[in-house]
Amino acid sequence: MKALFFDGQASMRDLAEPGPPPGEALVRVLMAGVCNTDLEIMQGYMGFQGVLGHEFVGMVEACDNEHLRGKRVVGEINCVCHDCRYCQLEMPNHCARRTVLGILNRNGAFAEYLTLPEENLHIVPEGVPDEVAVFTEPVAAAFRIVEQLSIEDGQRVIVLGDGKLGQLIAQVLWLRSKNTLCVGKHPWKLALLDALNIETALSDDSIEPGADVVVEVTGSAAGLQRALELVRPEGAVVLKTTVAGESAMNMSLPVINEVRIVGSRCGPFRPALEALALGNVEVRPLISETYPLAEAAEAMERAKAPDVMKVLLRA
Amino acid sequence: MKALFFDGQASMRDLAEPGPPPGEALVRVLMAGVCNTDLEIMQGYMGFQGVLGHEFVGMVEACDNEHLRGKRVVGEINCVCHDCRYCQLEMPNHCARRTVLGILNRNGAFAEYLTLPEENLHIVPEGVPDEVAVFTEPVAAAFRIVEQLSIEDGQRVIVLGDGKLGQLIAQVLWLRSKNTLCVGKHPWKLALLDALNIETALSDDSIEPGADVVVEVTGSAAGLQRALELVRPEGAVVLKTTVAGESAMNMSLPVINEVRIVGSRCGPFRPALEALALGNVEVRPLISETYPLAEAAEAMERAKAPDVMKVLLRA
């Protein structure tokens, strides 16, 4: 099968079709999305080697569970042991022995086929088209924030970063509090949120500090310091940016202001699928381009450009 | 009156005895303690100019409230407006217009007299000697942690830092969980905790990661990175260190592990006084030297030395 393989360089390869081990399903990938994490991995993040990609929608071609067979599915990316301390503490996403689709010791979704444990799969409601369903994983990552923090209507929320994930987070948090502001560097990106009546500002604008919650999703190491300047005392800063390398921060500020800084990674698929099915989160305006899988290498190059948002791959 | 005044240099000066404004008490200082924050201020932290010092025990010489007059007291250091957003949110320690004893726009305790709002004062129980009561403020800072996090017995707690505040924190957290370890660089300091049956380790020792809570109180910018390596996924890192300047940290680690980093500053005086009165926290072993106020400048120099813990000043 065709797959985009990374071993220091990303290139299309012809690999054997994977045989699912017991408990796993064979999934034919219909559509996959390029995430900034994929681009970070190509810069050395996680030290990953293998097939890239972790956002997908696909058809179950083979599996033991008859309810899944032949169904269109999306899949949670952390594959867990059920046995370690963190699995027993009901924190499976932190399983000490986990593999992660396209990120850690498991081939990913930029391929004709992938395998995942059956328990990771969620059936996609019929009315949700592929190019919407493929956003389930990043929308779930946005919903992780409201699992970690209670955000109530009226609370002042600032999302720093107008990229793909930043926009999904702004949309999801806006469902909780209409007092949500997205700050970015790109007028054309912010315009997508303006169209949804979500307030936006440019990074260079003067922004009133004292927000209850600031989400750092700039993808840049400098974002944390600004988040710490914008959040109120005893407020929360949510970290979504993963960058290879170190960030500088003035530690006195969060101590004096007793800020909570909360790391946030993968989230729950069910509320994400529901929001996509109901149209509560609008993902189609984020799609810049769609490439056939055979041109995945070109698609990755294109995804790095400053003038694109989401790049999709189709079978 | 004699006072240790800082304006880029710390020197003894003869200042006018302060006249307490309405609502404030005039307090004759009996004993004061040197904190690392005082030493940081002398390095430029907070840009403070004035009389140094914020840990004290004293006698109320004049005030409107007859219940306080003539009483021996300790005092909370944040003086607040009762009017700003944070006061109204019942977060007075974050008052936007606060002054802070010996730290922000208010003369401090290394003097014969100070003034503080009556509401800041707590009467010291009779059985608590001055050299114990003078520790109320830093013990309260330790109790702040258990206001912010619920720590249950059996939870694994690591305190990074064996200095004055680190030791008080280790003692307070040990009251909640006997599974508390203090990690430091100084065998003679750690021996003080060994004597209390609190587990200790040297920084160079190999320490099992996966702690539920790690408190960073090393006073060094490098402590945060180690704390992030020792805490378990979804665990908490408490920041107590305030250092002038920036720290480097790898931001991916707290994102992947979804760590909560919690800044922590001033705490509640009542549980601190109670712990001191009951002997649940042992402070006398931390006292290295006591100087008369007239020798405060020498005391500050001495407090910088690596072979001392708490330095006290007496009237």
Description of the molecule:
The structure is a homodimer. The first copy, chain A, has about 325 residues and is an alpha/beta fold. The first copy, chain A, is about 25% helix and about 30% strand. Chain A has ten helices and 19 strands. Chain A has helices spanning about 35-40, 85-90, 130-135, 135-150, 165-175, 185-195, 225-230, 250-255, 270-280, 295-305; strands at about 1-5, 10-15, 25-35, 50, 55-60, 70-75, 80, 100, 115, 120-125, 155-160, 180-185, 200, 210-215, 230-240, 245-250, 260-265, 285-290, 310-315. In chain A, the strands form four sheets. In chain A, strands 3, 5, 6, 9, 10, 18 and 19 form a seven-stranded mixed sheet that branches. In chain A, helix 7 (about 225-230) links the parallel strand 14 and strand 15 (about 230-240). In chain A, helix 4 (about 135-150) packs across helix 9. The interface of A and B includes residues 94 and 148 of A.
SSE-based structural type of chain A: alpha/beta
Helix content of chain A: 25-40%
State the oligomer. homodimer
CATH homologous superfamily placement of the largest domain in chain A: Medium-chain alcohol dehydrogenases, catalytic domain
Q: Whole-number average pLDDT of chain A?
A: 96
- Please state the second-level CATH architecture of the largest domain in chain A: Alpha-Beta Complex
Total E-strand runs of chain A:
19
Strand residue percentage of chain A: 25-35%
Uncertain spans of chain A: none
Element pattern of chain A in H and E = EEEHEEEEHEEEHHEHEHEEHEEHEHEHE
